[in-house]
Amino acid sequence: MEKLKTNLGFLGNKKDRIYVNIPGIDSDLLTIRVDNYKKAFKYLTDISINGKNQITDSISKSYNQFLAKQNLLYLDYDIQKEKNVRALNFFNNISPLPSRYSIQDKFKNYTIAIIGLGTLGTSLLQYLIQLGIKNFVLIDGDKVEKKNISHQRFYSLVDIGKAKVSVLKEKLPTICENINVVACNKYLSENNLFSKIIDKKLNAVFCAFDNANSDILRDIFDYCHEKNIIPYIAGYKRESVTAQLLSTRSIKSLITESDQYDIIKENSGVGYLGDMAAILLIRLWLQSIVSSADYGWDYLEYNLFSNKQSLVDNNVLNYYKIERNTTSNFFDKYILNPYIDKLYSEYLRTSQNQYKFEISTLLKKFKKKNNFVENTEERQYEKMLDHLTISYKDKIYSIQEFYYKVLAENQVPLKKYKEFYQKLYKVKSNALNVLKEKQKRIAKKYRKSISNSIEEIIDPIVINLNELYFENNKVDFIKYNLNYKYNYKMSLNDQIEKICHLDNFLPGYEMTQHIKYLFDHNFIDISRNNKNSFTILNQRQFDMNTVISFKNDISGLLNMAHEVGLNYFSSFVLDKKIVDNFSSYTRELFSFMNEILILYSSKNWKRKISYRELLEYLYRQISNPYSIDLYEEGIFTSKNTLDWTSILSTRRSITHRLNPNIKFTNFDVTNLNIVTNFGILFSERKLYLYPEMYLIAFFLVQKFLEEPLLYEKFINYLSQSNDLEYNTILNKVYGETVQGAIKKGGKALLSFLRNYGVDNGN
Length: 762
Fold this sequence. Notes:
The structure is a single chain. The chain is an alpha/beta fold. The chain is built from 31 helices and 20 strands. It is about 50% helix and about 10% strand. Strand 9 (about 205), helix 8 and strand 10 form a beta-alpha-beta unit. Helix 28 (about 690-705) crosses helix 31 (about 740-760).
């Protein structure tokens, strides 16, 4: 039986609207327009109060469907069977899923390890029990002392002198039923390591012990890394509490003078600080459970008396407070709305999806409604694809969902691949009509953009890169896709730290100071919940705003470096007004320079990027977009009749041109790639944008590293000139042509890649 979610607040204006306050992480006020106000409000009253939230079909199915679509319903539970109703109600509100059991079910077989059972550890234990965790591994060699009684939960005067873990093992089943405790009455030490005493499968590890030394922490981290478990650590001193993911970076920052000296000290913190630290830990942990709560945070700090908070480790930026200010009416009227209008007009003019992404992200960030009419042609085609479904493992997916979710993440049987392509054949004619409409719009522009001299330079570079990438010289196009999972995982703070370390890598670089400035003024927004990353000009302050979609891997680091790079180099431009009119080429050049500096600096990392991951990334930045650009150019500039035979022929010729020594199978399915590629179908591309600018950026970075004074010359030019086209910069600062810079950049790229491969044993 479906019921209304708890804590819904309905309010009617007695005319045509009903307002509902939606609970959850991103709570908002939803407006429902109704034709019959009295009837609708009576129904909501009946199911909210009189009917004890139970949905009925007796009045209106349409209302029920609406409530379900807005995620305001949950599946009923058996109150006799389920004792932890409060936890269910809690997860009901924060879960994006209609069933409140979705999160609670995950906990049934969870086993959590807590190391240290003092103030922090016992508070954490109680909160985890409240949330529904039943299985624990508790590790502590300490005994209950008199001083513990007032500050640490579960212990009483009769427990003094007893082992803490023994007391908890005995008491917890009397507090909550079905609690299972593995008690380990031991202190962790260099001779008694965590990895040696654990023989159970764990889902998380919480470090809540005092005076941790580096060997113990590294052992815990290494064990968790090997078993794919997230380790957490928290602590408090004086009036400040912290919680963070345990990482190699955090271990270094946690090591104190006690590693070098014998120090006599007593914990000066008050008990409730342990509660606060436990709450911060729970907040970090929940983001691994609840997708809508995952902002990519790996560090939280709160100061009790100054009321300051930090989401970024102060050891990275020496920074404590990130303010989230509400937008003013002035900002809305004179800055935000005009900018969105401008983006929307560009979207209508060019059909480039990047403008739509920026609009949707800004509207969501500033909680504005989307009043724009979508591109009708595009929406119709999207709906058509949505109606094409394919079943896999008892679930129904749309064609696009299957491509982006299933094929990207699973080893799918060949039979399913073939079924997928059979479905795509059904919309070939529709896709062809869209392509013909686009051809009418942009053919002349594409023909005008062709530069054979550039192709002659880039082609050999891409051919070399492709031969390194396709190791066995064979490609099966049915199973070929670019959805690669990077194994090198990096936390938010790790990524920020690596970008800040560019200051030490290139003399004169001031990236740490710049990132701190962005945080100080709320000019940067980093979250997993951001669908896309982009950087725009703030028309009010004439500073750049950066939005980053966080990913905890190498691609995420380079994406962050990309956006921050654009923001950083744009900050040097004297007249900020011209920043808004940068060509796409200049924007990408600024972005790629910072990204490539990261690649060069990675040679000095203790743990380096694997050669395979580096190849994967560079292939996606250069080879793949270049191939698609040539393919698209060939389609839209062809004077032959546009049909699927000519499309396949174009694809085949481009593929063989860039991969002369590679054998391809199942080539015929490649003509269907267009069917799900909205970029080719609707967006207007800048030919060779990514590869061309990437190679020029490689040239510039190599120049910076060879002659650091050229970096200073480059910055001075940005500060003094209004002509910021990339070809002018190359000419004025370096005395180089575009063709020359691409050629030299290609040599720098291949040299870097081959040296990197040799250094990594490849």
